[in-house]
Design brief:
Length: about 180
């Protein structure tokens, strides 16, 4: 069954496709809020996007491997994506906790730390730089900030891809 056109639409494939769709939707939403809505991300916000940037191409390959019957490799890729989303869940919880003042955020999360070479350059920088702090939520919906929603979405995606990793191993004797 080496990519002969028939696609196995079993549970692993369906969960992987759902995870891929949700990952793309999350990044498109984040970029939309940034570029269309004017919500500038802080450094922690940008770090939380890395899991999605990693997951999208890896999930695409995992789906192709699942369809081709290469279940061992597909399971490994699904598992790696699940680990990435687990780490992202932790990062989102940390960020949301810093926004709620449960603990301090990182020292480097107060905006640009660069120093102007001249006094005139400093004044110009002060007028043009918009400092985005990691410990201040710029938006909330149902009590959750962007970071809180990211933690929840990352946790769900972690569960989906972990389930896909186990489901792909139950593929029967045709697995490679």
């Amino acid at each position: 069954m080496a990519f002969d056109g028939s696609v196995d639409r079993g549970l692993a494939y369906q969960l992987g496709a759902l995870s891929l769709f949700a990952s793309v939707a999350a990044i498109v939403t984040a970029l939309g809020f940034q570029y269309l809505g004017g919500y500038h991300p802080c450094p922690l916000c940008l770090m939380q996007r890395y899991a999605y940037y990693f997951a999208i191409p890896v999930l695409f390959v995992a789906l192709a491997l699942t369809a081709g019957g290469y279940r061992g490799w597909a399971g490994l890729l699904f598992f790696l994506v699940a680990l990435g989303y687990l780490a992202n869940t932790g990062l989102g919880v940390y960020h949301a906790g810093a926004e709620w003042k449960y603990w301090p955020g990182p020292d480097t999360c107060g905006g640009d730390q660069g120093v102007a070479a001249t006094a005139g350059g400093l004044l110009k920088d002060l007028e043009s730089i918009k400092v985005v702090r990691c410990d201040e939520a710029s938006w909330r919906m149902l009590g959750l900030s962007f970071a809180g929603w990211n933690a929840a979405i990352s946790f769900v995606l972690m569960a989906l891809t972990l389930r896909a990793a186990f489901a792909v191993q139950d593929g029967g004797a045709n697995s490679r």
